[in-house]
Amino acid sequence: MIGGSMRRKVIFLLVVLLLIGAFIGLTRFLGGRTGTNGELRVDSQPTASVFLDNKHIGRSPYKDKVPAGEYTIKLTPESTVDSPASWQGRVIIGSNLLTYINATLSDSELTSAVDVLWLEKISGRSSEISVTTNPDGATLLVDNETKGVTPLSVSDVPAGDHTLTVTSPGFAPRTLKIKTTAGYRLIVTVKLALSGEPIPTPTPEEEISGTPTPTIRVTGTPKPTPTKTATDSATMPDPKKPFVTIKDTPVGFLRIRKEPSTSLTQNSSEEVGRVNPGEKYHIEDEQTGWYQILYSGSNEGWISGQYATKTE
To answer: Do 178 and 241 share a domain, yes or no?
Structure first.
């Protein structure tokens, strides 16, 4: 009797262990099916090593499943001929969704172009496109129809294939073939490359003609408006520490924003002013990647830390 009782106890324990093992295996299996991973694709010219949070995960063209989350991604060109510059940025990889990066890397960051696209679930069955650019203030066209300037969100976009074009004076235009999906917002960030072409500026004697408007000749030379220059700033005493010094920018100035964001909602990216390279401003506050400065006497606004050097 004792031996039979022990056997029943052993069999019972084995059954319990098997059930626990089956439960764990089923949980892991279902966890993989519920979408803890997203897909990351990277194309680049030239071929580049791909790093995710400083971990080397492969080389372009790259395609693989990656745990959903937000990452720092870096592309380091493998070419040693032209010594193209590396590129680094932030990407979001959604569960069961695709994140796509397409980069054309050149000899400097300013002449490199990079597109980053990913999907974001929204309520309803419509589809949307949200576009940010570097530099911002670029003209956005969807299917050759001008929608406005970036950052910009376009709602009620028909699901399907579209052409997205971004243009900005002094930069090479960028055209993307995209596909929108019902119930999702397509997030697009575009880094434009300097075109290397001079930006045409009208001279006082340039003729402005059109049809049927008659030709207009500008004969007067407008009186220049006094502006604060980087040279003026250099001769002035430094503001109270900590302060920032504005760096050179591709467009020749740096936008001051209402909030430390280029968000596409609630007008948080509204431009409230501009500052020039070489100028220095006291830092009132700071957040990751942003400085709040005091300008024009008593006005406050936020500037991107990408184009500012901090002095403490």
So the answer is: no
Domain of 146 in residue numbering reads as 37-191
- Copy the structure tokens of residue 196: 């290397």
Mean pLDDT, rounded, for 282-305: 84
* Of 193, 151, 152, residue with least CA distance to 174: 193
CATH code, domain carrying 268: 2.30.30.40
Neighbours of 15 (CB within 10 A): 10
Relative to beta strand 216-217, strand 145-149 is unpaired
What SS3 class is residue 204?
coil
Residue 163 neighbours by CB under 8 Å, 6+ apart: 142, 143, 144, 175, 176, 177, 178
Q: Classify residue 219: in a domain, yes or no.
A: no
140-156 confidence digits (pLDDT tens): 999 999 999 988 888 88
Look up residue 157 and give its DSSP letter: P
Contact 102, 44 (CB under 8 A): yes
Count of domains observed in the chain = 2
Output phi, psi for 307, to 5 deg: -120, 35
Residue 120 maps to a domain: yes
If asked whether residues 256 and 306 sit together in one domain, one would say yes
Instruction: Identify whether 171 is part of a domain.
Output: yes
CB distance 170 to 252 below 8 Å: no
DSSP H or E run through 184: strand 184-191
Same domain, 46 and 110: yes
Question: Which residues on adjacent β-strands are paired with residue 164?
Answer: 142, 176
CA angle 246, 171, 78 (to 5 degrees): 90
pLDDT at 192 over 60: yes
pLDDT at 216 exceeding the cut of 60: no
Predicted model pTM = 0.55
For residue 233, the model assigns a pLDDT of 45
Both tokens of 255, joined, read: 């936008």
Q: From CA 189, how far away is CA 92, in angstroms rounded?
A: 12
Q: Are the beta carbons of 92 and 68 closer than 8 angstroms? A: no
